[in-house]
Design brief:
With 221 residues, this protein is α/β, with parallel strands linked by helices. It is 30% helix and 24% strand.
């Protein structure tokens, strides 16, 4: 069985669930965006460590709310998503921007993205739902698409409960994942782990997932 066939049914289900989802509109709120781009955000702090924004790819871009935060800083940015409806939305959103390109992905790797074409890759609030084998597959393919010195900042699940279960049965719909295994795979793929942290998700203490998210900054030597 090919690696891309492992979890294929689940991958398709996950992609379909987020197709035209009401979440995208809610996620545009200033309060929600502040958690990623505000002055006290761990995401913004680590993003500022990315040295070169000449050619940036956002994985699982949704409706482009994160790309919109950096479109004026990036020389060129590619927005990628498994759902064509999201890419169509982004085409309208960024129609006046000459530095934005579009890519419909396969949910498993960076097929269709040229070798050594990116100086930076990032993904927020999306890989936490991915099948873990797909997260690992993206890590392996990162080295191919990053230029030497290129960096990747990835937000993914560190929830190790319910292995083999459905992600929507887990706290905050986090799929099975592990920061430790992520690090291992990144290093085996020839990438450097520059910085990483796990953290809680959710504002209500009774509903908060403790340490179920991870954010890791990688570099291709």
């Amino acid at each position: 069985m090919k690696n891309s066939e492992i979890g294929a049914f689940e991958r398709e289900q996950i992609g379909s669930h987020w197709d035209n989802h009401g979440y995208y509109q809610d996620a545009e709120s200033p309060a929600w965006l502040d958690g990623f781009w505000g002055p006290r955000s761990r995401f913004a702090r680590l993003f500022d460590f990315i040295a070169d924004l000449s050619s940036v790819l956002e994985l699982a871009c949704g409706h482009g709310r994160h790309a919109a935060q950096i479109v004026d800083r990036a020389v060129a940015i590619t927005v990628s998503d498994i759902n064509e409806s999201n890419i169509a939305f982004c085409r309208q959103r960024f129609a006046s921007r000459g530095n934005v390109s579009y890519h419909v992905g396969n949910g498993h790797d960076f097929a269709g993205v040229a070798d050594a074409s990116m100086t930076a890759v990032f993904s927020y609030d999306a890989m936490v739902h991915f099948e873990f084998e797909d997260v690992l597959s993206y890590i392996v393919d990162l080295k191919r698409i990053l230029r030497p010195g290129g960096q990747a900042l990835l937000h993914y699940s560190n929830y190790t409960g319910n292995p083999g279960g459905h992600y929507r049965d887990n706290p905050h719909s986090r799929n099975f994942g592990s920061e430790t295994v992520f690090w291992h795979m990144a290093r085996r793929a020839g990438l450097q782990v520059l910085e990483s942290e796990t953290f809680n998700w959710g504002g209500n203490p009774q509903e908060m997932g403790f340490g179920i998210d991870a954010l890791t900054l990688l570099r291709r030597p």
